[in-house]
Amino acid sequence: MEGLLLAVAAIIVAYNSEAVIGGCLDALAEMAASVTALVIDNASSDRTLAEVRARTGVSVIANPENRGFAAAVNQGIRACSAEYLLLLNPDTHILTALDKMVDASRQYGLASGKLLDKTGDPQKGFTIRRFPTPLTFWFELCGLNRLWPSNPVNRHYRYLDRDLDREASVEQPAGAFLMFRRDVWERLGGLDEDFYPVWFEDVDFCRRAVDAGYLIEYIPQVAAKHLGGHSVSQISEGCRWRYWCVSLLTYASKHFGPGGYRSACLAVALTSVPRTVAGMIRGRSLTPILSCIKVVGFAVRRLVSLRRPGEAPKLVS
């Protein structure tokens, strides 16, 4: 398809998003009429494409298979020529103009805005986060952050010590509402498609951007309502756990030293069994056992392997 010539393009990756994509596109058209909307559909089996094509001025790429989030984002960016790229989840409704976010991206390289939940409250703990550490992953995998949300590790990781009404540079905004200049994407080589199908690709992109010397500015005056969890809720619980753990270890393999990476592998292996037992009790099914065997076997193999720094792990299906 021919490149799109407007200055800002919203890159929206959709997967069975019939219920939410219309509202996303309508809000974008109302609040940011000059922004080009480009939807990359990852082989939806519902009426997502029909909803998109019912609206004028929206470009569509219809993939015959699910390429994953990172690959679809890169595909969309390559298909347009906009200088500023806005990653926008299909379950996100923009509530304000985007000018301040564009200005911040021009100055710093990347920018994000405030995400609000269904009731209009800020999504504290999700809108912005700090980069994860091996200790962060232990607390996440063990469930400590859910049982004790105010613990010091979680407060630091989820910026619970930060006023979400204050503009400032941050480490990792949510990929649901993230803008960056094209030259940043080009310099970083795009999103890493080893993160498949989803999770941690936005964290990795932000980490590489910061490591390259860019800043990410949080602009609370720019806001969007985020329903949350639309696409991932369609993945079975066992597959969600497997995909999340593999993406987690892919991130750890790139950004932790050998000790930190093996610590993450150990955390995945040790916490998978009790989590699987809990899933079996909740679902009254033995189905989670297969995913547990795959995840534990994968984590153990990586734990004892002679991995080179930066080598991304692969999961054998």
Between the first and last Cα atoms, what is the distance in angstroms?
34 Å
Give the name of the CATH architecture of the largest domain: Alpha-Beta Complex
How many strand segments? 11
What sequence of helices (H) and strands (E) makes up the elements?
EHEHEHEEHEEHHHEEEHHEHHH
The CATH homologous superfamily of the largest domain is called Spore Coat Polysaccharide Biosynthesis Protein SpsA, Chain A
Q: How big is the Rg? A: 19 Å
What is the CATH topology assignment of the largest domain? Spore Coat Polysaccharide Biosynthesis Protein SpsA, Chain A
Number of helices: 12
Oligomer status: single chain
- What is the helix content? 40-55%
Number of domains: 3
Kindly provide the name of the CATH class of the largest domain.
Alpha Beta
Largest sheet: 9 strands, mixed
- Tell me, what's the shape? globular
Low-confidence runs: 1-5, 312-317
The percent range for strand residues is 15-25%
Structural class: alpha/beta
- Give the overall average pLDDT: 91
Structural overview:
- The protein is built from 12 helices and 11 strands.
- Helix 1 links the parallel strand 1 and strand 2.
- Helix 11 runs antiparallel to helix 12.
- It is globular, with a radius of gyration of 19 Å.
- Helices cover 44% and strands 19% of the residues.
- The two termini are 34 Å apart.
- It has 317 residues and is an alpha/beta fold.
- The strands form 2 sheets. Strands 1, 2, 3, 4, 5, 6, 8, 10 and 11 form a 9-stranded mixed sheet that branches.
- The chain folds into 3 domains: 183 residues, Spore Coat Polysaccharide Biosynthesis Protein SpsA, Chain A, CATH 3.90.550.10; 28 residues, no CATH class; 70 residues, no CATH class.
